[in-house]
């Protein structure tokens, strides 16, 4: 499919989606969000793909929702179109793991899209922020919720109330990103990590992702119960038999996604 606001490629068993509106620092206009959803649909449907990497440019992962597109919206426009929810949450419904590889600015909706991914690898030049308050609005794609869960109330509240950006080191210290890597190595490292995930048992990877995500939606005892059921379910897979046999026989497992 021909896209105008993103590029899409396959590297080994990884689907790589690159946000590509350089003149607008990858501002997330509605056409881009639509294309992102289409690309995710295509990679989800592709059996050869086991994980997805979402990235931007070296200067910007994404500088937020497109301010020029939304500046004149009325309440009724936003409400009737369910602005932001509509289309954006597609990332969160992706069953295959999605790794955000963030270089440069991840601001507003850009930070929110990165947080919708399963984890964030940051380049050493990454900057995260929720600057919506400085343009007269508030985060509208989950920022007030996911940022609090990721880094806690004190830092999230300061960022949301002041618009202060944090750099990659502070983001890692706060737990927003899993790791910081040199800018030049970001994409290769993200693809390497995603390909490692893709090499594992797909059903078991999906169960692991589902179970971690349950931690955000349930009480501890319900979450543990959910985990236990999925843990038990792994014993119904051929890949669990293969994985454990391979360990005992001191060889590499050959998972068949069964
Ligand atoms: N929407 C639309 N266009 C944007 C944009 C955005 N979010 N961010 C940057 N651009 C455009 C600029 O307008 C500029 O275009 P022109 O050359 O046509 O003027 C181009 O990208 C380059 O930007 P700058 O000249 O500003 O680049 P800079 O290096 O001086 O500054 C920046 C970079 C600090 C990221 C700055 O662009 C900036 O502050 N951007 C806006 C950040 C922001 O407020 N994001 C939140 C948006 S609201 C939101 O996301 C709501 C939500 O929760 C979903």
From TrEMBL:
Q: Which SUPFAM superfamilies match?
A: ClpP/crotonase
Look at the named UniProt entry and state the broad enzyme category this protein falls under. Answer: lyase
- Known catalytic reactions: a 4-saturated-(3S)-3-hydroxyacyl-CoA = a (3E)-enoyl-CoA + H2O; a (3S)-3-hydroxyacyl-CoA = a (2E)-enoyl-CoA + H2O
PROSITE patterns tied to this protein: ENOYL_COA_HYDRATASE (PS00166)
Q: Which UniProt keywords apply?
A: Fatty acid metabolism, Lipid metabolism, Lyase
What is the organism of origin for this protein? Answer: Magnetospirillum molischianum DSM 120
* One of the protein's GO biological processes: fatty acid beta-oxidation
What is this enzyme's EC?
4.2.1.17
Q: Which GO terms describe its molecular function?
A: 3-hydroxyacyl-CoA dehydratase activity
Role, per record:
Could possibly oxidize fatty acids using specific components.
Which family is this protein grouped under? Belongs to the enoyl-CoA hydratase/isomerase family.
- The entry's protein name is enoyl-CoA hydratase
């Amino acid at each position: 499919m021909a896209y105008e606001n993103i590029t899409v490629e396959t590297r080994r068993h990884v689907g790589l989606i690159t946000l590509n509106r350089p003149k607008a620092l990858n501002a997330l206009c509605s056409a881009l969000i639509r294309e992102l959803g289409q690309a995710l649909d295509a990679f989800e449907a592709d059996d050869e793909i086991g994980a997805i990497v979402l990235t931007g440019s070296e200067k910007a992962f994404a500088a937020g929702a497109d301010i020029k597109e939304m500046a004149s919206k009325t309440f009724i426009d936003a409400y009737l179109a369910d602005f932001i929810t509509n289309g954006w949450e597609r990332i969160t419904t992706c069953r295959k793991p999605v790794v955000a590889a963030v270089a440069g600015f991840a601001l507003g909706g850009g930070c929110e899209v990165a947080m919708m991914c399963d984890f964030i690898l940051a380049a050493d030049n990454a900057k995260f922020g929720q600057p919506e308050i400085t343009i007269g609005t508030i985060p509208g794609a989950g920022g007030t919720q996911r940022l609090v869960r990721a880094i806690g109330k004190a830092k999230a509240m300061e960022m949301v109330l002041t618009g202060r950006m944090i750099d990659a080191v502070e983001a890692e210290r706060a737990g927003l990103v899993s790791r910081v890597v040199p800018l030049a190595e970001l994409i290769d490292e993200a693809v390497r990590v995603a390909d490692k995930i893709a090499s594992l048992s797909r059903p078991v990877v999906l169960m692991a992702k589902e179970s971690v995500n349950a931690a955000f939606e349930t009480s501890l005892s319900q979450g543990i119960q959910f985990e236990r059921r999925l843990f038990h379910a792994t014993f119904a897979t051929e890949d669990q038999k293969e994985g454990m046999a391979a360990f005992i026989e001191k060889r590499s497992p050959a998972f068949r996604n069964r």
